[in-house]
C-alpha cells in the first residue's frame, strides 16, 4: 500500500482488474471524462511486458491472466462515474484459503515492530472468522511477510498459489496490517463494490491523472452487508486528490454524517468482521492455554522441578518480544520466584516440538527486560538438538517470567516440557555481639574466635577483634552449630564458651570481661639449656615454659624459634605455635629438632621466644639453647725420617717441647 489507505469488499472477477495500478504520474490537467472499465483494462494490459505475470493497483497485486480473462469476457460496461452502458457477465476469480488455513513465513527483512503487527493482525482475524495462520513447514502455498523498502505496504489478493508476498513498512500500524492481511484473504477495497454510487460520488476532476482506475466499480462484487463507510478497507475522503483541501470521495445526501468517517485507521468495523465470517465461517471457539498470557503465567516453585503444558492455540501478545530472535507465534508463560540465590538452568528437554526459550524480569509483557534466551542447544549437529536451554544466576526473591515459544523455523505446536534445576547457594547469615566489663564499659581489641561446623559440613574457624564500642560481628556465615570464645591478656570472660545454633541473623551474643589483677597473675618464663650437637641421628632441644604458680583458668601463650649463631637453615628446624595450659598446669615443653654435623666449629646458639600470654605475665620471654661443639680435628700423621719434612720436624721438636715445658713451669 503506497499510503495508509484502508478498504473492504470481497473480490469477484473485477477484483482482478482493480488489483492493477499503473505508476502514479501527475498530469497537468485531469481527464475530461471518466474512463470506462474497459478503457482502464485496455490501458493496464497495454502496459504489460512480455513474461510479466502480475499487475498492481495501489496496494493490490493480481495475475495478468485473470485480468485478460475478465477483459475477454467483458461485453460492455458502465462508466466509472456510474452510468451503465451494456450489461456484463463477470466471472468470480478469487481463490480463498482452504479451511481458512494460511501458512506464512517471516522474512528477515521484516522489522521486529512490523512482525508484531502482523502477528497481532492475524490473531485478530483468527478471533473473528474460522482462520488459522500457521508458520510454514512444507506447505507449497504460503504468504511471505517481508519489508519492501521501496514500496512499503501491499499484498496479493486471495490465494494465488505458491509463495505470495505481503509487505509491511515501518510506518504501518495494526489496522494497516489487518488491511493487507484482508487482501491476502480475498478482500478488495470497499469503494469498488457494485452499489457504491448509491452512497458516494467520485470527483474525477480532482483525482491525480493516472489514478482514476483506483475508483473503478466491480460490477459483480461479492458484497456483504450494507455499504460500510467505517470499513478498514475504505479509502480516505482525500485520497489521490490533486487539491488536498477538496475530497475525492463525497457522501451523497442522507449519508453526509459519514464524510469524516471514511478511511479510519484504528479498528475493524462490524461489517469487516461479518464479511469475513460470511466467507470463512465464524471462528470456532478456541481454547487457549491457561498460561497463554504474560499476566496469566503459571506459577512454578522450588529449586528444581518439571512441568508440562501445551502451546496449541497459544498466541503472541501485543508488544511481546521475538524470543531469542527466533520465536514463532505460540508462546506460553511461567513465573518462578526463587527462595535462595544460585545458578539455575531451564531446559525444554522432553518437548514434542522445536522450542524457543526466554527469561525476563518486569511487570508487563511490553516492558520486560530480557535476562537470557536460547533457540537451539545445537542446531548444527546431525541430528540437530532443538532443545532450548538457558543458565543464569538467579537472585533470591526476584520474580522471573519464562516464555516457551515455538520456533519460527518449524512453527509447530504441541506438548511442552519445562525443566529447571538450581544450584542453591547457602543463605548468608550475620552473627554479632558485644564485649563489655561488669560496669558496662566496652572492651576493645578483644579477640573473638568462632569455631564449628556449618550445615554444609564445612569446618569453620574465624577470629575478629572487637571495635572501640566493644562490638564484633561475623558476616556471610552459613547456618550451623558454632562455639564463641573471647580472649584478651589480663581478662577473664563469662561465659568462657558461648554455644550458638545459627539459623538466621543472630545478635546479642555478648561476653562480660573481668580484669585480672596483674599481681595475682602467675609469672611465666622459658628456660635456657645446652646440648651436645652430636654427629648423626635425630636430636632434640626441649625448652620448658614454666609458671610461677598454678592458675584456675586456662592460659595460652604463643612461641616461635629465633636464629642466633645457629640458623634454622642448617642447624635446627624452625617451629612456632601456641601452648595451652589447662587449669593448674605449671609447665609445658616445646621440642625443637637439631641437625647434628661433623664440622669443627664454635658453640652455637638459638632461642625460643614466647609472647601474647593470656592469663599470665611473661617475665622471661627468651630461652637460649646452646649447641656444644663435640667435633675434634683428626691427628696429623708423623712424617718419615728421610723426607725433608721429617728433617724440618726434627729441628722443630725441641722448640715445641720448650714451649710446653715453659707452660708446665
Automatic annotation (TrEMBL):
Point out the signal peptide segment.
1-28
Q: Which residues form the active site?
A: 180
UniProtKB keywords: Calcium, Carboxypeptidase, Hydrolase, Metal-binding, Metalloprotease, Protease, Repeat, Signal, Zinc
Q: Which cofactor does it need?
A: Zn(2+)
PROSITE patterns from the xrefs? ASTACIN (PS51864)
Q: Which InterPro entries match?
A: Astacin-like_dom, CalX-like_sf, Calx_beta, Carb-bd-like_fold, MetalloPept_cat_dom_sf, Peptidase_M12A, Peptidase_Metallo
Q: Which one GO biological process term can you cite for this protein? A: cell communication
Question: Where, by residue number, does Zn(2+) bind?
Answer: 179, 183, 189
Say if the entry is tagged with keyword Transit peptide. Answer: no
UniProt keyword Calcium present? yes
| Any single GO CC term annotated in Swiss-Prot or TrEMBL for this entry | membrane
Origin superkingdom:
Bacteria
Q: What's the protein name?
A: Carboxypeptidase regulatory-like domain-containing protein
The species is: Abditibacterium utsteinense
Amino acid at each position: 500500500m503506497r499510503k495508509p489507505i484502508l478498504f473492504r469488499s470481497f473480490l469477484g472477477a473485477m477484483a482482478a482488474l482493480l488489483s492493477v495500478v499503473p505508476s502514479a504520474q501527475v498530469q497537468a490537467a485531469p481527464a475530461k471524462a471518466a474512463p470506462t472499465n474497459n478503457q482502464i483494462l485496455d490501458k493496464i494490459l497495454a502496459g504489460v511486458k512480455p513474461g510479466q505475470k502480475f499487475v498492481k493497483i495501489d496496494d493490490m497485486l493480481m495475475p495478468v491472466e485473470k485480468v485478460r480473462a475478465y477483459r475477454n469476457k467483458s461485453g460492455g460496461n458502465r462508466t466509472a462515474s456510474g452510468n451503465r452502458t451494456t450489461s456484463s457477465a463477470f466471472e468470480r476469480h478469487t481463490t480463498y484459503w482452504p479451511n481458512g488455513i494460511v501458512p506464512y513465513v517471516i522474512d528477515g527483512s521484516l522489522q521486529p515492530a512490523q512482525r508484531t503487527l502482523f502477528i497481532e493482525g492475524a490473531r485478530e482475524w483468527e478471533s473473528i472468522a474460522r482462520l488459522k495462520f500457521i508458520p510454514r513447514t512444507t506447505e507449497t502455498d504460503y504468504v511471505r511477510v517481508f519489508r519492501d523498502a521501496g514500496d512499503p505496504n501491499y499484498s496479493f489478493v486471495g490465494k494465488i498459489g505458491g509463495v505470495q508476498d505481503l509487505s509491511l513498512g515501518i510506518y504501518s500500524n495494526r489496522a494497516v496490517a489487518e488491511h493487507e492481511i484482508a487482501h491476502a484473504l480475498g478482500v478488495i477495497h470497499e469503494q469498488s463494490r457494485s452499489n457504491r454510487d448509491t452512497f458516494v460520488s467520485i470527483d474525477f476532476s480532482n483525482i491525480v491523472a493516472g489514478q482514476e482506475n483506483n475508483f473503478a466499480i466491480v460490477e459483480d462484487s461479492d458484497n456483504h452487508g450494507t455499504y460500510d463507510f467505517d470499513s478498514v478497507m475504505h479509502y480516505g475522503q482525500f485520497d489521490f486528490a490533486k487539491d488536498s483541501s477538496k475530497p475525492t470521495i463525497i457522501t451523497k445526501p442522507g449519508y453526509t454524517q459519514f464524510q469524516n468517517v471514511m478511511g479510519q485507521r484504528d479498528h475493524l468495523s462490524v461489517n469487516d468482521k461479518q464479511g469475513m465470517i460470511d466467507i470463512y465461517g465464524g471462528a470456532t471457539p478456541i481454547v487457549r492455554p491457561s498460561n497463554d498470557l504474560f499476566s496469566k503465567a503459571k506459577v512454578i516453585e522450588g529449586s528444581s522441578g518439571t512441568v508440562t503444558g501445551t502451546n496449541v492455540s497459544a498466541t503472541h501478545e501485543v508488544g511481546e518480544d521475538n524470543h531469542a530472535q527466533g520465536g514463532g507465534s505460540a508462546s506460553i508463560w511461567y513465573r518462578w520466584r526463587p527462595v535462595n540465590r544460585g545458578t539455575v538452568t531451564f531446559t525444554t528437554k522432553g518437548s514434542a516440538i522445536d522450542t524457543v526459550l526466554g527469561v525476563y524480569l518486569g511487570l508487563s509483557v511490553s516492558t520486560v527486560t530480557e535476562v537470557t534466551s536460547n533457540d537451539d542447544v545445537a542446531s548444527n549437529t546431525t541430528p540437530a538438538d532443538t532443545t532450548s536451554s538457558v543458565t543464569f544466576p538467579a537472585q533470591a526473591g526476584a520474580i522471573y517470567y519464562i516464555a516457551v515459544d515455538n520456533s519460527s523455523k518449524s512453527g509447530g505446536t504441541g506438548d511442552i516440557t519445562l525443566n529447571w534445576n538450581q544450584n542453591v547457594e547457602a543463605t548468608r547469615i550475620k552473627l554479632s555481639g558485644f564485649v563489655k566489663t561488669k560496669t558496662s564499659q566496652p572492651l576493645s581489641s578483644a579477640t573473638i574466635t568462632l569455631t564449628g561446623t556449618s550445615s554444609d559440613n564445612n569446618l569453620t574457624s574465624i577470629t575478629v577483634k572487637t571495635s572501640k564500642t566493644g562490638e564484633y560481628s561475623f558476616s556471610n556465615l552459613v547456618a550451623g552449630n558454632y562455639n564463641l570464645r573471647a580472649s584478651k591478656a589480663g581478662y577473664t570472660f563469662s561465659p568462657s564458651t558461648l554455644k550458638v545454633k545459627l539459623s538466621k541473623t543472630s545478635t546479642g551474643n555478648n561476653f562480660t570481661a573481668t580484669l585480672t589483677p596483674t599481681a595475682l597473675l602467675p609469672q611465666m618464663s622459658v628456660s635456657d639449656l645446652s646440648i651436645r650437637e652430636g654427629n648423626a641421628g635425630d636430636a632434640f632441644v626441649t625448652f620448658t615454659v614454666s609458671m610461677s604458680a598454678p592458675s584456675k583458668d586456662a592460659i595460652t601463650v604463643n612461641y616461635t624459634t629465633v636464629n642466633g649463631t645457629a640458623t634454622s637453615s642448617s642447624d635446627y628446624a624452625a617451629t612456632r605455635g601456641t601452648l595451652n595450659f589447662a587449669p593448674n598446669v605449671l609447665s609445658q615443653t616445646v621440642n625443637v629438632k637439631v641437625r647434628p654435623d661433623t664440622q669443627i666449629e664454635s658453640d652455637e646458639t638459638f632461642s625460643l621466644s614466647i609472647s601474647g600470654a593470656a592469663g599470665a605475665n611473661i617475665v622471661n620471654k627468651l630461652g637460649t639453647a646452646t649447641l656444644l661443639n663435640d667435633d675434634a680435628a683428626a691427628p696429623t700423621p708423623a712424617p718419615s725420617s728421610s723426607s725433608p719434612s721429617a728433617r724440618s720436624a726434627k729441628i722443630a721438636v725441641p722448640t715445641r717441647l720448650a714451649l710446653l715445658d715453659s707452660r708446665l713451669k
